[in-house]
Task: structure prediction
Amino acid sequence: MQKELLKIENLTKTFLIKSRMYEKKQSLTAVDDVSITLFKGETFGLVGESGCGKSTLAKLILRLIEPTSGQILYNGDNILKLSKRGMKRVRKDMQIIFQDPQASLNPRMSIGQTVSEGLGVHKICSTRKERVDRTKELLNLVGIHEQSLNMYPHEFSGGQRQRVGIARALSVNPMLIIADEPVSALDVSIQAQILNLLKDLQEEFDLTYLFISHDLRVVEYLSDRVGVMYLGKMMELADSKSLYKQPLHPYSTALLSAVPSIAVEGKKKRIILKGDVPSPINPPRGCIFHPRCQYAKETCKEIVPELREIKNGHFSACMLAEDIFLV
Amino acid sequence: MENLLDVKNLKTYFNLSAGIAKAVDDISFSIKRGDSFGLVGESGCGKSVTALSIMRLIQPPGEIAGGEIVFNGKDILRSSDEEIRNIRGDKISMIFQEPMTSLNPVFTVGDQITEAMRVHLDISKKEAYDRAVDMLRLVGIPAAKRRINDYPNQLSGGMRQRVMIAIALSCSPSLLIADEPTTALDVTIEAQILELINDLKQKLGMAVLLITHDLGIVAENTDNVAVMYAGKIVEYSTVRKVLSTPRHPYTTGLLQSLPSISDAEHDEKKKGRLNAIAGVVPHLLNLPGGCLFKTRCPLKKKICDDPPPFKEVEAGHYARCWMV
Result:
């Protein structure tokens, strides 16, 4: 059995927001009772459309925001109970790569400073020379020439900036990297370079990835297991192979069929969902997906379905899953 | 069938203090009536500048340095401003990538839809309003009568893009230019919008110029396609030919760098490396001599230092490469 690195249990985050002046605060549940286990060395892909709570989940795991309820166990310790100092130790192990490499690099720091900052904070290198050497090594590792050390982010292209972001994440020898839409801002040809890099680094350093993306093609390529989120809830969770071969939730089926395919022959029939994603402030009763679901029955409007195991290791939060997909 | 739009040797240059950036350099293509044509390429390859040139919306320091854009038998580049205003928004209209920034936040959706109709069509305010409601219904906005008084911020991204489409189609154009119409949208909404554009294309018999970076969208929504790289068209043919037998190494590279969801190869392929194209797109002010793609091309030979010809490799299939 693989070793559990990170275990999230029933994590919920509710924001209180005020949409108009003088109005009572309303609650918005961005992440609703989500449980995931990440095993060491694997890539867990998290997919969903904008506003489904993917990025909130990433921030919760890093404790950049505090959850409303639930537990986050890292190597068996509940990190929500840790003090600031204890948290610093864990932060070294968990790093994040952001979507927009332009916005996530400080324009007034040279890339050398950006990459080496963590080395000082976590006291990884004691002397200046050591730090410079380690920084050069990191830059080489991600495919940036070490002489670029003193250049600033604006002197780089988007793909190179993303490489700097990756070098920064790697600098403190993390165990877990959360990649929040790391390639969505990049062109296709550059996207492939970065995906290859992420894959190589994972092999070399035995990294665990939580890979967040809205692009199902990219997630399929990289992930061992995949979770599909919708309006803060986990709708389906399974092995990547199993999910892409036979999705067991109507939302995943629709998502998959919506991806434009470059195949010229044999066009598949599209399932086109009606309507927009409902507002998370006032989510539908019962199954949150029922207003857009082509299979919805009366019971779907009343009963909230639970995420349950339908096949070996394949979970779905659709109460009709067997009737729809396994006949 | 006669061509609706003929772009011939179009050159759009930007005169910058650092030099001349040839954003679009000598490109030619044509679109037939009722056809859909795809223009693909990565950021900075000149797709959007081509679209803006057709609309005559290029502003200094940019200028159209040469070529012809023949629309309905008339060269747009030699038309007066008055004539162009009559075409723009009426015969040719355009939808943009970001539906929030292209709608005016201080006017209601109804105001913005009726504006174009009031300018181009000789109709009363009341008629325009009724027609705007019909347009909203046509693009699939529920409760159109109520929604027409909404401001853009009250609508979701997909709804806003539908409103943009309603504005673009309000005068029944014969050519719709869609510049990355779904890039800012989620996949399920993207599928809705593309289906809507295709539907309306059939219903109204208009031609569509679809600009995108996504080869999948091209495959499913266009008849002919041109692949652009650094301001030039490098490959041009029917979608089927370009995607199934690509002849230019850039097109091949683009296709191979896409992770694809395909059931057949699912099991064997798993987890190989992607065939990425090495390097980055050259800067427009610092283009390599000869073939523009040679700095990244796996097939590069000595001859590539000379500019390659745009060869017809088979009937109706062109590629700009020495190696074909």
